[in-house]
Amino acid sequence: MDKIILTGDRPTGRLHVGHYVGSLRRRVELQNSGEYKKTFIMIADAQALTDNIENPEKVRQNIIEVALDYMSCGLDPAKATIFIQSQISELCELTFYYMDLVTVARLQRNPTVKSEIQMRNFEASIPVGFFTYPISQASDITAFKATTVPVGGDQLPMIEQTREIVHKFNTVYAPVLVEPKALLPENEACQRLPGIDGKAKMSKSLGNCIYLSDSADDVRTKIMSMYTDPEHLLVSDPGHLEGNTVFTYLDAFCRQEHFERYLPDYADLDELKAHYTRGGLGDVKVKKFLNNVMQETLEPIRNRRKELEKDIPAVYDILKKGSDEAREVAAQTLAEVKSAMRINYFEDAELIRMQSEKYEGQ
Ligand code: ATP
Ligand code: MG
Predict the structure, then answer these.
(1) What's the CA gap between 116 and 327, in Å, rounded?
(2) Which of 132, 159, 243, 359 matches a 20 to 30 Å C-alpha distance to 249?
(3) What strands, in cross-sheet order, belong to the sheet with 38-43?
């Protein structure tokens, strides 16, 4: 079977370093690996509207921001189809049919949706569209027959839900849909990078982000204000790594060669952690190291973005072309789905013949 990638992001803000380690970095590697027949990258504007109905303009404004972030990270429109969800109306049709295959109780059990409902104070009145977005996500994935979905840890329940829908559909109707697999980042820090406040996952909706497009100064200020270990008051105090955001970020970003370049007194991250835990290593020194590591990662991204910003119409052209391409693929899947469901009446000569026979000679 051909290996196909689909993944995406909600245009609710610029992309942040959580997206980068959670999914973007991996996507670019996969796109360049030559192992995948197609890579589809979706800007999920329709999904973003499900919880931003008070502010649709935010979604509209952020489409270009997400597209710029994508390409500055190295997603290449020559290798990946970048498209806008709302432009593929076939996805809505698929969602409508998949809804018959899922119970309300099943949706209520989804732990990610549960915590997102809480986070958005939706307990009293959840928009139906928001409640059912895991079904719409199943449409996004299956429309492209994706085998592989590179995502952060919060997306696992969505992939599971998709697999169930695929299984049910293929059992009830005919085996036309493909069961996808999530591809999670290698370590825990990357699966769910916390915000700089150390409280929750870094999320556009929570304002605790380091954005890929932040200036070098902003990144430095944010890192220097980062949550560490509240009990580590004096340099000589033993420090704790658990819940220490600076070390979580080092787990996500730091590589061996960073030590040679910026902190040659230590062989590797284990040695740095051991010193911190023992006592005698100050937060400022660790933060300065993290700043060097992150600036090295972010600078080329920032520079490429500046170049791309010079020709915005060209970026919209890429999105238009990608959306046209994506639509063709989704239309093909939808036709197969409708045919499997036998709701293709006018193409079914046998049905018309049988119905005629029923009335013959009456
Ligand atoms: P929103 O607050 O609007 O939901 P978000 O910041 O959660 O925005 P999404 O567009 O929902 O971003 O997520 C896009 C992708 O990035 C998903 O694959 C998700 O798992 C991943 N992702 C988002 N935040 C993080 C994070 N903090 N750490 C790792 N991966 C993340
Ligand atoms: Mg999210």
Answers:
(1) 30
(2) 159
(3) 81-84, 38-43, 4-9, 148-150, 181-183
Tell me which fold the domain 4-191+312-353 belongs to.
Rossmann fold (3.40.50)
Residue with tokens 């060097």: 292
Three-point CA angle 7, 9, 13, nearest 5°? 165
- CATH class of the domain whose range is 216-308: mainly alpha
CA 45 to ligand 2 center in whole angstroms = 12
More confident residue, 147 or 154: 147
Handedness of CA 280, 282, 287, 293 (dihedral sign): negative
Report DSSP state, residue 237.
S
pLDDT tier, 339 (very low <50, low <70, confident <90, very high otherwise): very high
Residue pair 160/18 in contact (Cβ under 8 Å)? The answer is: no
Cα–chain center distance at 194: 15
Which ligand 1 atom sits nearest the alpha carbon of residue 155? 20
- With a 6 Å cutoff on the Cβ, whether 18 touches ligand 1 is yes
Closest CA to 224 of 271, 294, 287, 169: 287
pLDDT tens figures, 273-329: 999 999 999 999 999 999 999 999 999 999 999 999 999 999 999 999 999 999 999
Burial class (CB in 10 A: 0-12, 13-18, 19+), 262: middle
Q: Are 339 and 332 in contact (CB under 8 A)?
A: no
Q: In a mutational test of the pocket of ligand 1, which residue from 61, 141, 203 has the highest number of ligand atoms less than 8 Å from its CB? A: 203
| Rounded distance from Cα 334 to ligand 1 centre (Å) | 28
Q: Is residue 222 lining ligand 1, measured as CB closer than 6 Å?
A: no
325 exposed, middle or buried (CB, 10 Å; 0-12, 13-18, 19+)?
middle
Virtual torsion, Cα 205, 208, 212, 216, nearest 10 deg = 150
Q: Where are the domains of the chain?
A: 4-191+312-353, 216-308
Distance between Cα 279 and ligand 1 center (Å): 35
What is the average per-residue pLDDT within 155-176?
97
The residue ranges of DSSP E strands in 174-267, in sequence order, are 181-183
pLDDT digits (tens, 9 = 90+) for 174-231: 999 999 999 998 888 888 899 999 878 898 777 899 999 999 999 999 999 999 988 8
